[in-house]
Specification:
This protein is an alpha+beta fold. It has one domain: Nucleotidyltransferase, domain 5. The protein has four helices and four strands. The chain has a four-stranded mixed sheet. Helix 3 packs parallel to helix 4. The longest helix has 19 residues. The protein is globular and about 40 Å long.
């Protein structure tokens, strides 16, 4: 097996703990200019709900945009009847845009 870089090791280490919970997971991906969030059911391997700054066409600084995406994903989850999720931050620190997205989703009604 090829050597994994530091980013991949951190991501797998986080994901290993998160997948054991039995809940759908809210996973976050952030690129340089956009942020993406999706709720995944790992038992069947399907995306249940997704939202992104690109799809929303959100304006503002990156943290404000992340808050909008967090509120949107929580609203879509509520429509599908999803109340409890586990937060998968991937290899990112719980800081900045990732933290803003998570807090906005909590305020909009998702339970972590």
């Amino acid at each position: 097996m090829a050597r994994l870089n530091t980013f991949q090791r951190r991501k797998y280490r986080t994901r290993k703990r998160v997948k054991r919970s039995g809940r759908p997971r809210l996973t976050v991906y952030r690129s340089l200019s956009h942020i993406y969030a999706q709720i995944i059911d790992d038992e069947v391997g399907h995306t249940l709900v997704a939202s992104s700054s690109l799809a929303l066409g959100a304006k503002g600084n990156k943290t404000e945009v992340a808050k909008q995406v967090g509120a949107d994903i929580a609203k879509k989850a509520a429509e599908k009847g999803i109340k409890k999720v586990v937060f998968d931050r991937g290899a990112y620190k719980y800081h900045g845009r990732v933290k803003a997205l998570a807090e906005a989703a909590r305020e909009a009604g998702l339970e972590f």
